[in-house]
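Q: Hi! First time doing this. I have a protein sequence and I read that you can turn it into a structure. Is that right? Here it is:
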Amino acid sequence: MATHGALKRRLAGDLDRHFPELVAEMQGAVYNGARRWLPDRQDAEDVTQEAFVRAYRALQGYSTARIAEIRLRPWLFTITLNLCRNHARSRSRRPQQAVLEEWSDIPDSAKVEEDAVAATAVDEWRERLAHLPARQRDAVVLRHVVDLSYIEIGEVLGCPPGTARSDVSRGLSQLRTMLATEETQ
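A: Yes, that's right. Below is the predicted 3D structure, encoded as structure tokens:
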């Protein structure tokens, strides 16, 4: 994004004053990415918050020149993806706990139905994504949920942009196959 160069200069000049701009600009995308990688909404919120905490701490230790060289989006999504992987790894080692939500109001039945349909669709896509190899899943999420370029995806995944493009293409192809199979059943 064109504004990232100006934002990096502002961050380098006064991190405390301008870091909230980075959060405001990127928090939605970071959360959306985390939400696709993690099955629980609260976990995605926690990872989003932790990603910005870690980014802030890292930037505090960087020189002005280093901040000027950072490609903010890939750098921030590398942090986010690593946190998601760590979270999923640690969660797999713990027993699952059932969460009971508090009911403060009697919900509107039309809203409940609408929310249920939306939640089901999200769960179905999360399930489909879970069947992809990890690298393809990460590439598809970074491209089609987070809207990173292939160059940025390559930076996050540590591969050339052409490989990132192939991973996205293969992932999408497998998702199309899954959809076609579901439609015929």
